[in-house]
Design brief:
Chalcone-flavonone isomerase family protein, Chalcone isomerase, about 280 residues, Chalcone_isomerase, single chain, 7-stranded antiparallel β-sheet, alpha+beta, two-stranded antiparallel ribbon
């Protein structure tokens, strides 16, 4: 038996020969899903939008503004914590794999930051750089992760998978980064295992939402992960370990090794423009 290993970003899958049989089955499955009388991803996703509070005072636009990513609306602004400034949508993208020229999209991603003078001052060293220059500069993305501003990553499911699959991908990425930085000790191991357990029994259906929130200072906790599903209360967990929280940020903001190249490209494009216009 021949095994074909296909990789794209952090996703991989093994296919047994003959490949054509797999593709025929996948083609049937996709057609079958299209014919099923189900709500669209956009329609399902709208059910979760009322829980978001958006401030009309933000520089990014009004309450009604949204950016559509693969048919999924992302609010231009989100206020995660009452009393805090609105977070602006600064980048978006997807996670996907390509199998024999067939693209399979898993998640749509929105990156929200407190777009303030603090953020732009923190990144001032890259003022005047082009998007391509930022894209190739790992130090820029490291600085973005370290920026002392509130951040929120909103991940919306496009293709259903088991939560355990997502949890294992996240665990592997975070652990590998911690090991490479020589910061993987017992406390980090325990924190990573808690995240894996959080996703273990969940099932990701189209339109379901995973949120990663990172406060501006560690005094408010290192991070919070939430999972919103149709008809159920939002599940939440705290990530108290700062090293683990930082590596989760790097999974989405980490430049070339990040999980979503389209999101990283969007970040580079946006910050090249923001920094160019900054005083």
């Amino acid at each position: 038996m021949h095994i074909y290993m296909l990789r794209s970003h952090s996703f991989c899958c093994c296919l047994a020969s003959p490949l054509s049989s797999f593709l025929r089955a996948l083609h049937w499955q996709l057609n079958n899903h299209r014919q099923a009388p189900t709500l669209s991803i956009s329609a399902i996703h709208h059910q979760f939008l009322p829980s978001l509070s958006k401030s009309p005072q933000s520089k990014m636009g009004s309450e009604t503004e949204t950016v559509t990513v693969e048919g999924i609306p992302f609010p231009a602004e989100i206020t995660f914590t009452a009393g805090n400034p609105a977070l602006s949508l600064v980048a978006n993208g997807i996670t996907d794999i390509e199998i024999h020229f067939l693209q399979i999209k898993y998640n749509a991603i929105g990156i929200y930051l407190h777009n303030s003078d603090v953020l732009l001052d923190h990144l001032h060293g890259w003022k005047g750089k082009s998007a391509d220059e930022l894209l190739g500069d790992d130090a820029f993305f490291q600085a973005l992760v370290a920026a002392p501003v509130e951040k929120l990553f909103r991940v919306v499911v496009i293709k259903e998978i088991k939560g355990s699959q997502y949890g294992v991908q996240l665990e592997s990425s975070v652990r590998d980064r911690l090991v490479a930085a020589d910061k993987y000790d017992e406390e980090e191991e325990a924190a990573v295992e808690k995240i894996t357990d959080f996703f273990q029994a969940k099932y990701f259906k189209p339109g379901y939402v995973i949120t990663f929130h990172f406060p501006a200072t560690s005094a408010a906790g290192a991070a919070e992960i939430s999972f919103a599903t149709e008809g159920k209360d939002e599940a939440k967990m705290k990530v108290e370990n700062e090293n683990v929280a930082r590596m989760i940020q790097k999974w989405y903001l980490g430049g070339d090794p990040a999980v979503s190249p389209t999101t990283v490209r969007s970040l580079a494009d946006r910050f090249a423009a923001l920094l160019s216009a900054a005083a």
